[in-house]
Amino acid sequence: MSKNAIDTGILLETGTNELEILEFYINEIRKEGQEPVPNYFGINVAKVMQVIETPNLEPPESAPHPSFMGTIPLRDLILPVLDLSVWLELDMPKTERDIVIVTEFSKSVTGFLVSGVTEIHRVGWGEVIPPSHIISSNTDAIIGLIDKGDRFVQLLDLETILTQFEPDSETEMAIADTTYNVLVADDSATIRAMIQQNLTDANFNPIITTNGDEALRKIMALKATAESEAKDITEYVNLVISDIEMPLMDGFSLTKNIKEDPILKKLPVILYSSIITKELRHKGESVGADLQVSKPDLNTIPQLAIDLIQGGAG
């Protein structure tokens, strides 16, 4: 029996540094003969289309990745199903009660096989503990921990997982005729490395931070240095590029802080996410973001940055 699409009806006020997550679990056999132990994970509710029963797929011999289980029809789509336990290297026993979480983000629809779902939580990004000491074989896919008292919920970055399956698109790279300083904020090491390489290749000097809180502290330090040396802030940073979903402080809150500062507000801000919906775009506009980009289009950022810095974009 299919479950209804996830819809909580809660609209989070922009700049409150909050999000809603769907908590689910993957059972793991840790010792032979003992009961499986649940591992708890969470993903942004906005990425969830639907939750359905397991299609009981048998992985094809020619699978492009060990976690690829095959494809299923859903509405007018044919979507791939990935066994999340395989990717996370968890020994999950398969049962008839397993479910598939159908997600839509980064311009693609994908199903993820898990053991079950628990509930939806509304949490503040400030509650998300950065994953600096998480023991996992795929730490790059875990962007933080949420302490629920009796368990920790690991917040997953599904985009990192999908990069294993989708080849990078080739786009001619713009080259800046002047070296600009760009502050970048992203919690994913994979995405940070991609953006850093793209910006460096385009003659930018990227200043890399791992979340909105660190980015805000960095830009405030640059502002203090500029003021102490009686220089303009643009001699230290010309533009800010930020992910929206990050531990401690999200991109909306970071942008709001920048745009409400009388010195920093002149700096253009580009926000990006795997889910630039109409509602999220409205939120970005309300905090003053100059541009908002979908993660599959990150390779266009150098050109967008050049246009914004040089005043060529509205």
UniProtKB/TrEMBL annotation:
Q: Kindly list the positions at which 4-aspartylphosphate occurs in this protein.
A: 243
**Any idea where the CheW-like domain is?**
18-167
Q: Which InterPro entries match?
A: Chemotax_regulator_CheV, CheW-like_dom_sf, CheW-lke_dom, CheY-like_superfamily, Sig_transdc_resp-reg_receiver
Q: Which SUPFAM superfamilies match?
A: CheW-like, CheY-like
Please report the stretch or stretches of sequence annotated as the Response regulatory domain: 181-310
- Mind listing the UniProt keywords for this protein, alphabetically? Phosphoprotein
The residues forming a coiled coil are none
According to UniProt, the name of this protein is Chemotaxis protein CheV
**Organism listed in the record:** Pseudodesulfovibrio portus
